[in-house]
Amino acid sequence: MGLDEAAQKPHDRLSAWLAADMEAVNLLIRERMASEHAPRIPQVTAHLVEAGGKRLRPLLTLAAARLCGYEGPYHIHLAATVEFIHTATLLHDDVVDESTQRRGRPTANLLWDNKSSVLVGDYLFARSFQLMTEPGSMRVMRILSNASATIAEGEVLQLTAAQDLATTEAIYLQVVRGKTAALFSAATEVGGVIAGVDEAQVQALFTYGDALGIAFQIVDDLLDYGGTSAVIGKNVGDDFRERKLTLPVIKAVALANAEERAFWERTIARGKQDDGDLEQAMAIMARHGAMAAARADALDWAARAKAALSALPDHPIRDMLADLADYVVARIN
Amino acid sequence: MGLDEAAQKPHDRLSAWLAADMEAVNLLIRERMASEHAPRIPQVTAHLVEAGGKRLRPLLTLAAARLCGYEGPYHIHLAATVEFIHTATLLHDDVVDESTQRRGRPTANLLWDNKSSVLVGDYLFARSFQLMTEPGSMRVMRILSNASATIAEGEVLQLTAAQDLATTEAIYLQVVRGKTAALFSAATEVGGVIAGVDEAQVQALFTYGDALGIAFQIVDDLLDYGGTSAVIGKNVGDDFRERKLTLPVIKAVALANAEERAFWERTIARGKQDDGDLEQAMAIMARHGAMAAARADALDWAARAKAALSALPDHPIRDMLADLADYVVARIN
């Protein structure tokens, strides 16, 4: 590996290694997001799909399949399936969260309307289910349909857990497994399943995706308090304004003195927020080391992801997946 | 058949004939709408599922399977699948249409919020995909996932066709196939597929469901102008207020004189509606015989549905399905 390659982000190295596969995925996505009768469908989908998302989830499927020696055509279908499920959930999330910005651009619900986002999301879900039937593997379909159910369940749980100061780290973990890790782990697991590897390796791929997804989401939740709008392409403090109980808040609430408790009661539980409250929330979290503790948890999940890789073949892709686990957390260095 | 039975509606006779199967479907629905982690899911679902809907779609699956001699367990799963898809689309429709009443009760989006309706709908879609994998038939999964895509596409098409006076009867038919007939035809078709009948009979079941669904939706659209709130459990004139181009309106627009054209331009295209406009719309449609012409179309589709049944076994269920096709249109006698 030359110096140039070593300097690249692991995600970019995976993309370069899997470039031909990824091009096939992009072609298939464009083909399947078409609609003969309803031109609004490809308009809305293209706005999101072509906004320069990282395509991390389909890359994971391609990487898992290739790492396991798969030579057939269907990792392309499964990677496109995973991206369609992800895109559908983004469309619906932006409606639910009333978001106005995604990947640094106006959201579809803002550019068109909530109706279009709901219905085009439904279309992409249905398209994903059509795609996942094509490899003809019952097990693949069970994994991906189970992941879809876990995602929706996690989103509903997040909805009801929001504003509730009694939310524990265990509930947070369930929400995170639903909203993020379920699709990561399904993405890696199906790659191994179509490659026909043994159960220990399928389980290792699941564990890698699950742990990577949890680390990724913890970091995303940290960035929502610590990043800048230019870097993360999304409004800082969104989670605070939406009164979401993310990991650093949960940790700070657990350690709160009476005055801090009253602050959280007012801003999160009752939703009475004023100018300066976001800064105050960040100061309280810093005082209790809540951000650092959450980052330590993310590092622990990244370590678990890397450990799982030992069951898989020695291969350049495996090294990139290990680096990816480190990089996911390094985003908040 | 006794006099009592003859006097019953065909739908009730089907329900009685298939009562044991239907009970198993209801049990499975209750079991699968549960959620260990998110109690809001069964709350929202139960509100809709237990509101006394007709369960017409799962009945069609059970009827098709039994008519074709199926003796296995999986017609129950497929009937529940079909009802879950239907329930998910109702939840999302009520968000998209901003409806406040469904089956004579407040809608879920009113009782909870739009967020819950979107996410619980997603959960039910995912649950339906889990259920449809259980019989282990690739063909069944393709039929049902294709139906889901057609439904979503029809809804998006309806969204963009609303308010557009250039909407033709051909576009209306596409919308209706999407929003209603696709699930009816999938419901009947999969019943034949799991029973293992020949292609001609599978096709006949598809055609019956497709034509029945189209007749059903045309009548529903007529009732939106002609029924009463107490009878149809839904606000009369909803489609007019939502500026939907349904069949009687399309027929009246095609025959409009200059003054009537101006009326449709104002009320449907521009959405400027005043008191009395609904009555005026109904008077214009009556003047051109638009309601009668749409009813004639519905009768024609019902006749096609009945004709398709001739390819299927002579059986009491077949007679009830024939009567059902008549009854669907007789609702507006």
TrEMBL record, chains A, B:
Organism: Gemmobacter denitrificans
Family, as annotated: Belongs to the FPP/GGPP synthase family.
Record's keyword terms, sorted: Magnesium, Metal-binding, Transferase
Cofactors that this protein relies on: Mg(2+)
PROSITE patterns registered for this protein in UniProt: POLYPRENYL_SYNTHASE_1, POLYPRENYL_SYNTHASE_2
Taxonomic superkingdom: Bacteria
Keyword hit for Chaperone: no
The protein's name in its UniProt record: Polyprenyl synthetase family protein
